[in-house]
Structure formats: C-alpha cells, structure tokens
Specification:
Protein name: tRNA threonylcarbamoyladenosine dehydratase
Low-confidence stretches: none
Radius of gyration: 17 Å
Organism: Anaerotignum faecicola
Structural class: alpha/beta
CATH superfamily: NAD(P)-binding Rossmann-like Domain
Order of helices and strands: HEHEHEEHEEHEEEH
Number of helices: 6
Shape: globular
Mean pLDDT: 95
CATH class: Alpha Beta
GO molecular function: tRNA threonylcarbamoyladenosine dehydratase; ubiquitin-like modifier activating enzyme activity
CATH topology: Rossmann fold
Strand order of the largest sheet: 3-2-1-4-5-7-6
Distance between the termini: 26 Å
C-alpha cells in the first residue's frame, strides 16, 4: 500500500496496479449534462488521468435541477469550462482537454479516437450518438452509450446490457434499429426498463419534444456509466 493520497480508499479495492492503469488512462466524455457531468466527475475522482470533455452548450436555468455543474453562478458559462474547473479544484493534476463544440457529422473526426481507452456517449441526439459510436468502433476504442433518462421516476430500473438485449426504452429501440442498419454490433449501453411517463405539460424546442427530468435519475445513469469504465480500465471482473 502506497502512502496516503486522494486514491487511498480506491486502492484498497483496485490495488496499486489498478490505480496506475487509471492514472495512465484517457477517456473522452461526450455530453456534459445531467448524465455526462456526473460521469466526468466520477471518472476524475476515480483516478482517470486524462479526460476530454465535449459539449457545445452553456449552462442554463433549466439545468439547475439535475446537472452537477449548474449553479446560479455558472448560468451562461460553457459547460466544458465549468466542468474542467471543477475537476481541477478536486484534482489539479488531472489533464483535462475541452472541446466546446456540438459533436456531429461536420466534426466526426474531432478526436483521435484510437488514442483513447474509452469513449462515453452521453449525447442527447440520435444522429450524433450514431456517428460517435461509428467512429469509436472504427478506431477499435471501447464505447458505452447512455440511453434515455428523461420522463423517468425510478433510478433503480437502470441496467447495463448490449444494445441488442435492451427493451422498453424508446431511445434504445431507435438505436437498435439504426445500429443494425449500419452493421454495428456489440455496443454496451445503460438503459432503463421503466416505462417513460407522459409529461404533465407539453414543451417543444424546434420540432423536438422536451422530456421531463428529475434530480435523482440522470445522475444515477452517469454513475453507472463511470463505474463500467473504471472497472474495465482497472481490470475488475465482477462476473
């Protein structure tokens, strides 16, 4: 056991070798919102040495109820910047690279995906999720994707599975179909078996229906995603 440090408690479970693997690891988180902000912080606190944060949005008033980075003081600021500052306040030595852009077809090669150990997809839109998974698969880099967390009440209904084994979740259904069309298999996801609730009121932005979201649902999905990444990198097998 090494001398006491920020990761001493984690080392009791992961060992020195596991902690060292995490320190050398490079993980990219796409989407720093209700799910992704919790992923990023859990990865940092878990010991991942290099994090890339990708999100083109700014903190808004409606983010306050569920996003780790959202406070009255951060409203209007770039999500990647707020997240990077928070990580450095916790662990100054963590390398954080910001990509304050909306990921999609026009910048699908934003990162050198092959240089990363793991990609976390916490993006909202189907098109961008599909492009991200395609690029990760093309590079041979591990990827895990968050399915729908909106319009849900029960955070205990989340499960980890291959996309082909999912059910109930409307987003997972769309993703299953689109990934099959593209010939992409073997995508690990976090999804909920809870039937989505119908929002009490209808709100739209453009053509998109805004889902309802609570303080205690998206963060749980984020923690599950982070746990899968950390255990994989550290070489922990729970089977």
């Amino acid at each position: 056991m090494s001398e006491l440090n920020e990761f001493s408690r984690a080392e009791l479970l992961l060992g020195e070798e596991g902690i060292e693997k995490l320190r050398k690891a490079r993980v990219a988180v796409f989407g720093i919102g209700g799910v992704g902000s919790f992923v990023a912080e859990a990865l940092a606190r878990g010991g991942v040495g290099h994090l890339a944060l990708v999100d083109g949005d700014v903190v808004s008033l409606t983010n306050i109820n569920r996003q780790l980075i959202a406070t009255q003081k951060t409203i209007g600021r770039r999500k990647t910047s707020v997240m990077a500052e928070r990580i450095h306040e916790i662990l100054p030595e963590t390398e954080v690279v910001e990509y304050p852009v909306v990921y999609g077809a026009e910048n699908r090669d934003l990162l050198d995906f092959a240089s990363y150990d793991y990609i976390v997809d916490a993006i909202d839109t189907v098109t961008s999720k599909l492009i991200l998974i395609e690029e990760a698969k093309k590079a041979g880099t591990e990827v895990i994707s968050s399915m729908g967390t909106g319009n849900k009440f029960d955070p205990t209904r989340f499960e980890v599975a291959d996309i082909s084994k999912t059910s109930v979740c409307p987003l997972a259904k769309v993703m299953r179909k689109e990934l099959k069309v593209r010939g992409i298999r073997g995508v690990k996801v976090v999804y909920s078996k809870e039937l989505p609730q119908k929002p009490a009121e209808s709100q739209e932005t453009g053509k998109r229906q805004i889902p309802g979201s609570l303080s205690f649902v998206p963060p749980v999905a984020g923690m599950i995603l982070a746990g899968e990444v950390i255990r994989h990198i550290a070489g922990v097998d729970l089977a």
